[in-house]
Amino acid sequence: MQAGKSESSWFQCIECGARYPIKSVVYRCKACRSLLEVKHDMTSLRRRDGREWKKLFEDRYKSTQWPYGSGVWGKKEWVLPDLENDNIVSLYEGGTNLFWAERLGQQLGLDDLWVKLCGNSHSGSFKDLGMTVLVSMVRQMIAEGAPIEAVACASTGDTSAALAVYCAAAGIPSIVLLPRGKISTAQLAQPLANGALVLSLDTDFDGCMRVVQEITEDQTIYLANSMNSLRIEGQKTVGIEIVVQQFEWQVPDVIIIPGGNLGNVSALGSGLSLMHDLGLIDRLPRIVVAQAQRANPLYRAYLKNFDVVEPMQAETTLASAIQIGNPVSIAKAIRTLRQFDGIVLDATEEELADAAAVGDRTGMYNDPHTGVALAVLVKLVQQKKINRSDRVVVISTANGLKFTDFKVGYHEGTLGLGGAHRNQPVELPPTVAAVKAALQVRMKEPQ
After folding, report:
1. Are 197 and 124 in contact (CB under 8 A)?
2. Considering only CA atoms, which of 371, 57, 87 is closest in space to residue 237?
3. Cβ contacts of 236 within 8 Å, gap of 6 or more
4. Per residue in 149-194, pLDDT tens?
5. Which helix (H) or strand (E) holds 258?
6. Angle between the 263-277 and 330-339 helix axes, to the nearest 10 degrees?
7. Which domains does the chain have, with CATH numbers?
8. Each residue of 381-394: pLDDT tens digit?
9. Are 355 and 417 a contacting pair, CB within 8 Å?
10. Phi-psi group of 294: left, alpha or beta (phi > 0 → left; psi -120 to 50 → alpha; rest → beta)
11. What pLDDT band is residue 36 in, cutting at 50, 70 and 90?
């Protein structure tokens, strides 16, 4: 079913088209310094028609056949077809819940609102989808004699957690560079627990990114950030999974995704485009990127029709994982948005915190980045850019349990925000009368 092994997939420059072997230690084009993407032998992939691909993926979905029960490796032919199964490092990632947000949809005036809970994964974020691919390839390269001694990343929390846990499972040393004091306690604890070398730098994410790019010029240290196109190959399965397993091949109208370093935007588009090219779907959804107002370089570029693209100094935001002023993958994101009739909007700190709290009141437990996406959803409904009958999917990128300080701070009123939906414990004496009085007050409040 495949072309020759050396041609099944490869890196290709998004600008000049230069090609590099898939096992090369290369992150940018050597000719023009542009970003790379993974390309596949489409002639080989088209030897199966759409119905055959659908049946194959459905038969594998959440099965116990190694490694195809994984939401990523169930699409192995579309990800890394030549990787040896024995070198795959999988923690059964993917297959996360697509939550029907019925109550929230009713409140907003939407009949068909869904939230893709990518945080219901091993390390608690969508980064697992990309890290299984990258660490598996590193394991394969080491087995074939590559002198890789460790894998490194800069992170605002979730990437470091995913890298550390997959490297721990593979027995490969990991190095994570974190901005000191700018990630949650839970996110810091994850790489520490998994044995990573954690370097806490007195800078922001962009500063960490500059350092990690320099240290990974040494080819014994492999770069794990999303400028490495292998990460995108795993993350692209989010879009495939929504359509394939969870909507029975029906394409949603709008997908809203939080954007920081912006690799997830091009990943989402990549998976959807591949399905369209192979005839599995007959149309593409609209993609919306949601940014925090304090770190919104893509939104600023969008306002200028992407004619002017400039980095900015990101300010401190509750949505710490997307506090990025110079996103590495912005060129890929812009290309995706142009293809998918894209929209970019931003949200203030109060908007994102309130939106997360409103969603929580309807059965979710939102991280602040999902709060950004939900706040943007509210704006799009108000602007009548989303219709009542549209099927809308919000991508929730991480588990709210990673951001307990954010939750507690909101409800205790210590975030410096209004907190329109605060809910504090009621302190009472240990008497039946006091409890009954509190119950009467609460029962009269709207739910």
Report:
1. no
2. 57
3. 79, 267, 268, 270, 271, 274
4. 999 999 988 999 999 999 999 999 999 999 999 888 999 999 999 9
5. strand 254-258
6. 40
7. 1-47 (no CATH), 98-124+232-412 (3.40.50.1100)
8. 999 999 999 999 99
9. no
10. alpha
11. very high
